[in-house]
Amino acid sequence: MRLPNWLSQHLAALRALLVFTVLLGLAYPLAFVALGRLPGLSDKAGGSLVANGSVLIGQSFTDADGNPVAKYFQSRPSAAGDGYDPTATSASNLGPNDVVDTADRKSLLTQVCARSLAVGKLEGVDGSRPFCTADGVGAVLAVFHRDGLTGPVTRVVSVNQTGTPFLATYQGVTVEPAKNGEDYQALGGVITPIRGDAPADPVVPADAVTASASGLDPDISPAYAALQVPRIARERGMTEAAVRALVKDNTDDRALGFLGEPGVNVLELNRALDQQK
Amino acid sequence: MAGWLFVISLVVALVAVYRPFGDYMYRVVSGTRDARVERGIYRLVGVDSKAQQTWGVYARSVLAFSAVSILFLYLFLRVQNRLWLSLGMPQMNTHVSWNTAVSFVTNTNWQAYAGESALGHLVQMAGLAVQNFASASVGIAVAVALIRGFAARSNGQLGNFWVDLTRVTLRILLPICVVATLVFMIAGMVQNLSGGTDVTTLTGAAQHITGGPVASQEAIKELGTNGGGFYNVNAAHPFENPTTWTNWLEIFLLLLIPFSLPRVFGRMVGQNRQGYAIVAVMAVLAIASIALTVGFEVHGGGTVPQAVGSAMEGKEVRFGIPNSATYAAATTLTSTGAVDSFHDSYTPFGGMMPIVNMMLGEVAPGGTGSGLYGLLILATITVFVAGLMVGRTPEYLGKKIGAREMKLASLYFLVTPALVLIGTAAAFATGNNATALNVGPHGLSEVLYAFTSAANNNGSAFGGITVNTPWWDTALGLAMLLGRFLPLVLVLALAGSLARQKATPESEGTLPTHQPLFVGMVVGVTVVLVALTFLPALALGPIAEGLS
Amino acid sequence: MTLLAEKPPTQKAKPASVRGGLLDPQQLWRSLPDAVRKLDPRTLWHNPVMLIVEVGAVFTTVLSITDPSVLAWTITVWLWLTVVFANLAEAVAEGRGKAQASALRAAKQDTMAQLRDGGLIPATELKQGDVVVVVAGEIIPGDGDVIEGIASVDESAITGESAPVIRESGGDRSAVTGGTKVLSDRIVVKITQKPGESFVDRMIALVEGANRQKTPNEIALNILLAALTLVFLLSVVTLQPLAIFSKAWQAAAPDTAAIDAHGVTGIVLVSLIVCLIPTTIGALLSAIGIAGMDRLVQRNVLAMSGRAVEAAGDVNTLLLDKTGTITLGNRQAAEFVPVNGVDPRELAVAAQLSSLADETPEGRSIVVLAKNEFGLREQEPGFMTGATFVPFTAQTRMSGVDLGDRQIRKGAAAAVMRWAKSSSEEVGEIVDGISASGGTPLVVAENDRVLGVIHLKDVVKEGMRARFDEMRKMGIRTVMITGDNPRTAKAIADEAGVDDFLAEATPEDKLAYIRKEQEGGRLVAMTGDGTNDAPALAQADVGVAMNTGTSAAKEAGNMVDLDSDPTKLIEIVEIGKQLLITRGALTTFSITNDIAKYFAIIPAMFAAVYPGLDTLNVMRLHSPGSAILSAVIFNALVIVALIPLALRGVRYTPSSASALLRRNLWIYGLGGVIAPFLGIKLIDLLVQFIPGI
């Protein structure tokens, strides 16, 4: 019996798909899984595991309450689950102008400001940043004009603060604190971030206040590591020079001198610190 | 500086392989001898490898293969919980399964799920990765069929889909993947069937280190411009992209085939300079786009990047900003969609560039095959306008661009913008834009990005938006399906129409399609058409955000 | 073509003297009623771009009535003007044809036809195969072939040429055209036309553009324009939900004339669509086509279809008849070659004497040469008494003179040698040499002594070589067709600078040559007049029949040259190219215009919501209202501004494709980007003073 043309065509397609599935979907990956069992490769194919995790996967060095454990170098903020959760990898996905806190979540700006403040406090340095208030939230006003977007200012609200506003007056109008749950944008306020007078080049490095792409970033920048050196030396009773030497040992420079950026592997660094004793 | 060296080194590497690799691919697709394995496959599949196909037969073969693939993958996802290596993952629900099946068969690899928490290893390997190979081969096959249309001397024959599919898979994709997998494993990508390892961190917390056949999948994901990550965070995940140099290699792999296919074009039409012209168009657009993306990202913009001091949100330390931006441009200039950083957190204009890249129709250099045929369509439209301006019935490579050719090319050009614009408008009209994470213009950009990515079969996203709702899965699934197969059929119809034509010999009066002037004009037409089509929508998204 | 009444006969159509596209402003006025009549949607249906503008105009009219404002009404008026201007372009183009058509109709009076079998019937009732008799003073009632008699005919009604022409039965001058007038004698004509399909009927239809069909390139271009229109339509329509969302989110943004809570207002939305869709080219497209045909008609060429005109632009190979096209019609004496021992002067004298009574151009040229080279005075034939002139006959193949016992003969080598009963190897060599160089040898003998040989040469027309070089630059091969032997043909071909030649060409050879070229994908153009040219004319992609030719030839070709000037083919090719270039250039211009319009309209629409977008207002236009209005006005005015260009065609100088592209891209591409920036700014400077804008 001759099959109709369209049917035989689809059967050929199905046979082709099955052949490919066996060849490319099973034989090809499984051959490499087998290869990955060989000594020399097995370590890496297995996930570069060490006693306390994987050297490729970042982890939090915090206690059960989420507070930094002071004797360890701290990793970057993470948006993976509750932090560095490989079963829920994620970035924050918050946009560059996410500046208004809502009842549901803190804005990215406020998160950055709060982290900067916290890191500054932990390391004993100035944690201030542009567009951040002294109490670590985004310095953002909702400015109401008489004619909507233009005209004299009639009302000003500091949208991320329920307490004392970071600014007393704005263009001669007294700044109000925000009420919880109020959407001042929807009420007709023009959202206006205020730069403030923080230095353009903050002491706390960028990677210390931003979540990574994977949420599992194993590295911190050499600058962030350097910022943490005095604390580590203090906590561990080491000289700063000794700590710096360890940092240097665990710094991966740019491959071939131009690929990527230098990074300090935090787990390896902390493991090295622990092994110092 | 290092950032520019990174880009230059990629350019140098791609220039170096253009001829040898292009020539190799040319021999693969135009050779007449079948390897023994291939003969075995043809026998198993039951096709005659010597039989030539007209465009209709070719198209039906492509569609049949793709339809069967979608169905197969859908069922696979629906029953994965009962299969070996499911890691205890539940079955995928209907709408996400549909979305995922379409997504992988269309070379989009849009992911409405998170790999590490939704899929077992078997469905990743034998379901998704197989489509990574197949969809890439389909793209190349169709591109080659179009070239045959240009090169054919009025016989109407476009080759044999099954042969193209098999040869491209076995002789181009697989060998490179084998090498790349090995290199990736040496770099530290995992390649195992483990369900994961529970470890105790230094501070005593529990962490579950995942496993999986990642390296083998990563290789084809990049080489085939697929982009579907094994894990949710894609190539930002240290297991998918452990080092600074694997980052370079991944970008190289995803640009390799699309940038070398113009050589195949030049060889097949018998004029290498035509290939150079096409690759020049791709290169001009790509380099400009990468320069802009890197420039925008490095120089900040937006309140948060200014507060932070740089646009480090959503980027990995080891890659840094310039290399991440290069990856973002490369992945959207091709139809890859893999990411090593999260575009949603990019600066306003830096984040606009990936959208614009996709809106260009992913032609610089575009997906495997789809980039070349997309660009040849744009070149055809350019030839038409330019041809009129030199006072002749327009012809490209001796083939007249008449009413039928213009109809097909115009329809091709219409499909993707229509899907993007209608989809985006529909999301807003129905209130489904509410699932966007960000507000205001950036929220609009998230929706626009989603449909741009789906209709252009890219797969990357402004990831803040939640898209695993029935509406989004269905709408984006349709956008991917139509965005892939309508253009593909139109391309094959065009190929058929060209293949039936006699070639007009070249003369002084013929529009030269290999000179810088023409290259510039194709670039101009591409940019102007895209700008004119999408500027209003972009004005309310990234441009409004960037200029605020 | 212009007609008898308007044109003195001396002023034959030459490119320089043709009133190409100089637009008479009065013509715009005269065409206005037609333009308004064309607002009928059923008429506009064939132009989708303008139809959309009209639908938009209707929509804004309704909006302006329900919610009147100065801006709304001004924009509405200008939208209507946009459609009217587009119609005007077409009406003007058609108007020129209509004037010619009415003159032609006048020529086509109600004539009665005298059937040979007796009976008098109206000319309109003549059928194919009817045989009519026409005598001096009568109008020929229909197209046909003379089957009996000879007559001089005044064809000025169709050719504009007042000198009468001879029409006779048999041969290649047998065709007569209905509407022309027999001046002398009587002829019997067999009608070859179908009722209502006479040459004049077709001419009228043609110049009126009545059943004008879109040409292939026009169709393809229309598809592209439709696609662009659709894409812009989509991009504007789908903007609305996004605009609503943005407006709602930016709660502080006030409602403006451009945008409110319901999104972008209808007026502005329509304005944006109209500005973006390719209205410029859409408006001018059909005018360009009509004007292209018109330019041909002005050069006294009738194209039976626009397709043929377009094909002319694509021609790769041009077949040209040698005689009359490449060379002057006749050969001329170039040299006297004496045989050994004969004084050259003696030869010249003998040659002159033998040619004194020879009134053929060849004969006269011998006398001229003798005078120029040896100062021999021309003598009146009657001056030499007692001389008997022997005329040329086909049997003797020589002519000469008998002066007493001096018998001088000149003629074909073999004939003269036989007559002189002499055989000389030397003469043979000279004769062969001349033949080889493409010349014609005439042997001169006195009594039984061969004196030498006159070398007759084809003279290539002045400027032909330059013309062919031009053609080569345009990528066109020229092929000379001749009945000469290959050696002769080659020599002339080399001298004239053609690319190839076809020697000893029979009609079958021509046909075969055309087929061969077409096999290779080339398009072929040729001219022809004889009945035996008909198959080749039909086969050629562009076949130009001479008006002097037979009806069969005129039927077979797709163009008729009323001047019967074979070099016209070159001009036809240029007109064909110019037609396409004009379309391409205006399309480019139309699309690149959009860039500036975006910079005007997008900030105008959305700066009220996102003030930052005012950065895009690079022209610093006065207000959102003035910006939108300026863009709409510019869009309308540019149509009017380009009507002359559409009618005249883009300047065309023969050059290579890349040179042409470069030039046109600079002018119309770059110009298209820049012009609207200037234009819109300028208009904005004016409209800002309108109160309420």
Features:
heterotrimer, A: 277 residues, alpha+beta, 3 domains, five-stranded mixed β-sheet, flat, B: 2 domains, two-stranded antiparallel ribbon, 65% helix
Strand content of chain A: 5-15%
Major sheet strand order of chain A: 5-6-4-3-7
Mean pLDDT of chain A, as a whole number?
95
Most extensive chain contact? A-B, 109 and 122 residues
Distance between the termini of chain C: 49 Å
- Give the amount of beta strand of chain C, in percent: 15-25%
Note the run of SSEs of chain A as H and E: HHEEHEEEEEHEHHEEH
The number of distinct structural domains of chain A comes to 3
**Roughly what percent helix of chain A?**
25-40%
Please compute the radius of gyration of chain C using only Cα atoms: 34 Å
Tell me, briefly, the overall form of chain C: elongated
Biggest beta sheet attributes of chain A: 5 strands, mixed
Q: Which segments of chain A are poorly predicted (pLDDT under 50) over 5 or more consecutive residues?
A: none
N-to-C terminal Cα separation of chain A, in Å?
Answer: 82 Å
Major sheet characteristics of chain C: 7 strands, mixed
Oligomeric state, counting identical vs distinct chains: heterotrimer
- Judged by helices, strands and strand pairing, the structural class of chain C is alpha+beta
The rough form of chain A would be described as flat
Spatially, the strands of the biggest sheet of chain C line up as 12-24-23-22-13-20-21
Structure summarized in a few sentences:
Chain A folds into three domains: 5-45; 47-92 and 211-277, no CATH class; 93-210, no CATH class. Chain A is built from seven helices and ten strands.
Descriptive overview:
The complex is a heterotrimer of chains A (277), B (548) and C (693). Chain A is α+β, with helices and mostly antiparallel strands. Chain A has helices at 5-35, 42-45, 108-123, 206-209, 222-236, 240-249, 266-275; strands at 49-50, 53-54, 140-147, 150-158, 169-170, 173-177, 190-193, 219-220, 251-252, 263-265. Chain A has three domains: 5-45; 47-92 and 211-277, no CATH class; 93-210, no CATH class. In chain A, 32% of the residues lie in helices and 14% in strands. In chain A, strand 5 (169-170) and strand 6 (173-177) form a beta hairpin. The model of chain A has no long low-confidence stretch (mean pLDDT 95). With 548 residues, chain B is mainly alpha-helical. Chain B has two domains: 2-268, no CATH class; 367-547, no CATH class. Helix content of chain B is 65%, strand content 2%. Chain B has 18 helices and four strands. Chain B has helices at 2-30, 36-45, 55-78, 94-105, 115-118, 121-151, 161-187, 214-223, 244-268, 272-298, 303-308, 320-333, 348-359, 370-389, 403-429, 440-455, 470-499, 516-546; strands at 197-200, 206-209, 395-396, 399-400. In chain B, a hairpin with a 5-residue loop joins strand 1 (197-200) and strand 2. In chain B, helix 6 runs parallel beside helix 8 and helix 9 packs parallel to helix 12. The longest helix of chain B is centred in the N-terminal third of the chain and has 31 residues, at 121-151. Residues 1-21 of chain C have low confidence and may be disordered. Chain C is built from 23 helices and 24 strands. In chain C, helix 4 (70-107) runs parallel beside helix 10 (279-298) and helix 9 (266-276) runs parallel beside helix 22 (624-648). In chain C, the strands form five sheets. A seven-stranded mixed sheet of chain C has the order 12-24-23-22-13-20-21, with helices on both faces. The longest helix of chain C has 39 residues, at 568-606. Chain C is α+β, with helices and mostly antiparallel strands and 693 residues long. At the A-C interface, strand 3 of A face loops of C. Chain B: It is found in: Cell membrane. Chain B: Pfam families: KdpA (PF03814). Chain B: This is Potassium-transporting ATPase potassium-binding subunit. Chain B: The chain crosses the membrane at residues 6-26, 57-77, 133-151, 172-190, 248-265, 277-296, 372-390, 411-429, 475-496, 517-539. Chain B: Keywords: Cell membrane, Ion transport, Membrane, Potassium, Potassium transport, Transmembrane, Transmembrane helix, Transport.
